[in-house]
Amino acid sequence: ITFYFSQASGGEDEIQQLQKVLLDHLDENTETDPSLVFSRKFYIAQWFRDTTMETEKAIKSQKDEDSSEGAHHAKDVETTGQIMHRAESRKKFLRSIIKTAPSQFSTLRMSSDTVDYEDACLIVRYLASMRPFAQSFDIYLTQ
Question: Is 9 helix (H, G, I), strand (E, B) or coil?
Answer without folding.
Answer: coil
